[in-house]
Amino acid sequence: MLEVRNIISRYGPVTALHGVDFTLNGGEVLALVGTNGAGKSTLVMSIAGHVIPEQGQIYLEGEDITQIALHERAVRGIGLVPEGRRVFPDLTVKENLITGGYVLPRQSEKERLDGVYDIFPRLYERANQLAGSLSGGEQQMLAFGRAIMLNPKVMLIDEISLGLMPRVIHECYDVLERLRERQIAIILVDQNSDTSLGFADKAIWLESGHVKWQGEAKTCPLLQESIVG
Amino acid sequence: MAYEMIVLTNMLIAILFAQSLNLITGFCGQVSLGHAAFLGIGAYTSAMLTKSGWPLMATFIPAMVIAGMIGMIVGTASLRVRHDFLAITTMGVSFLFTGIIRKQDMLGGEMGVSGIPAPDGGRVGLLLMALGLTILFIMIMIYVKRSWMGFVFESIAEDEDTASVLGIDVRRFKLFAFILGTAGAGLAGALYAHQVRFIGPDSFGFVESVTVLSMVIVGGIGSIWGVTIAAALLSVMPQFFQVIDDYKLLVYGLLLFFAMRFLPEGLGGLAKRFRQKRGKS
């Protein structure tokens, strides 16, 4: 599904990623862990297309998308739930969702909306409410729903639990489970690495842009350390 | 009666002109400080055509097309810049336009174009044309705002990076808004040239660009009704209070300052807040 080969990304003179390789199949979850500034968000942004890697390739279903513009990657099936949710506050919940799936045919819009409302009944209740007036948890649900409206093949989720209550975080992981069942490949960044490692199939531990460890999530040394600690 | 008709026509042209900027700045978040240049392009196009025998109504399309085409060139060049850089770029367009016009003898140079023919149907005909076109433009804007395209514009205005992530071709939509808005200004320019029947480079300078931006900001960026009311009031006020006309730049500068400081969402935002309060009580 998604193949990342030795990508190197820079911000001006600063190299933020020093070569990352992995493959991810449909229904698999990859957790990116590491401290602040390790390069997790840069990797997510490189796949989403916000940052164009200086070297290396990104393949989606065999197609090289490395140099493809941000909006065209979304059309090909890369959905992003950005850090801080970034919903459109002056649009209603329904309008946010419609905007999320604007690149797909209008005929399937109702079906896709119903699909999102099925996952998030609260969004249905708040359909005509301005997104800016929602709680943090509801905004996170809306950001998820907006990305789901694209019928993504790969979902990138940056800082899933930032600023959310434990109950809401639990709900978010329930949603991830449903997405996994739909064979969507998921790349997950969570400040609470124990939770993300416990949920994921694979993990990459980044430190200063370098891969410190890579493998099966349950065997990640970070998780072992926290269990022993 | 003739005076009232002139005031009313001026008001309608100002509303049309302000709405054309509202489409660019309000709907798509692109601040333009050179919008009067496109009013001028429409005005010069229409004036030159009617002087060579075209009926006024037949000049509307060329005025819109030429203003829209130049808008497309400026818009394409401006796509790489955002916010204050875009404002400065468009301000440059305004100076460039007046600078070029001053040196074109065929466009009257410094002396401008005089003897622009009266429209068919006289003042009443022009008033009805202005009324019809302004209503049509507002209806198109309402339609766009309520359609999925309106949501897309709004998402770009609010956060264009996130809009891109959703697959929205931000550059294409921004350019589309710019072309539509500048074509609208061209249409307003065609009406304006036949309202005043004399145009010169100074009619489309930086002051006019600031004036129309004031109308959009006081009305509430993106608010169709707010901008309509603000444009109506701000276009009529100088006709009744001479001091406003004499110190135009000062008055509109102060207005911009106070609007941004105390009423950043403009009249449209005020009405929205009032409605929300009433809904709660």
Count of folded domains of chain A? 1
Largest sheet: number of strands, sense, barrel closure of chain B: none
Shape of chain B: globular
Remind me, CATH topology of chain A?
Answer: Rossmann fold
Based on the structure, what is the oligomeric state of the protein chains? heterodimer
Average pLDDT of chain A, rounded to a whole number, is 86
Give the C-level CATH assignment of chain B. Answer: Mainly Alpha
Most residues in contact, chain pair and counts: A-B, 26 and 17 residues
Which CATH class of chain A?
Alpha Beta
Task: Note the beta-strand portion of chain B.
Answer: under 5%
* Count of strand segments of chain B: 0
Structural domains of chain B: how many:
1
Evaluate the radius of gyration of chain A: 17 Å
What profile does the largest beta sheet of chain A have? Answer: 6 strands, mixed
Query: Considering the protein shown, what is the CATH homologous superfamily of chain A?
Result: P-loop containing nucleotide triphosphate hydrolases
Strand order of the largest sheet of chain A: 6-7-8-3-9-10
Strand content of chain A: 25-35%
Label the CATH architecture of chain A.
3-Layer(aba) Sandwich
**What proportion of the residues of chain B is helical, as a percent range?**
over 70%
